[in-house]
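batch job 7 of whatever, protein = VTT domain-containing protein
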Amino acid sequence: MEPKPSQSRPWLVVLIFLSFAVTLYTLYLLFPEVSTDEKLHLKYPRNLEDAKQLGRVLSKYKENNYTVVLCSVVVVYIFLQSFAIPGSIFLTILSGYLFPFYVALLLVCTCSATGAAICYTISMLIGRAAIFYLFPERITKWQEDLSQHKDNFLNYMIFLRVTPIVPNWLINIASPVLDVPLAPFFWGTFLGVAPPSFLYIQAGSTLEQMTHTSVAWSWTSVAMLTGSAILSLAPILLKKKVKAD
């Protein structure tokens, strides 16, 4: 269905951003007093060295300020995902360094799905009407094509998240434009990011020894992701086989 230009709500995007800003500032105020040198490293990591430095600071204060440290990682992670800002991979590794494996995995899957859902909402609020205006016939055609697979949206979303075929930020922005419902989008993201996150969280437990992010990858990890991708499409292939018989 074609949206009306009046449906654009840019002020809501500003409100979302301000909500994140207020929450992050509150957590900053709640964080224990740190030295001047440590304060330099209280920023979201842009590379592996930033992640190591931040990990050392957070690890030092985590025992007595667990809730503040956990909430800080969660809010920053969701913020990066919501506004398609690079850096979440380093927070995934950092989570593996700071928290027990299953806590880190649940944190990453939840934050990824929540941040993606907010990005989805932002795209729907400010981008959907504009894209329809620019490419009405093409978008309508894509929507019609996708509607034929609506029963399999969850499986396709899991597949897209497991595999690097399409960048995650593009999936987040394009999904509301193409009328992908929010529920399969959210749960497909939650389940789909688990396999690759598993690898980075596991690698994060040895963060101090890491020299580059590619150490998380091996033939075993590639085989695991390939198997996860095939498994995500298996129900669709089974349905087709049943119908064909």
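notes: The mean pLDDT is 86.
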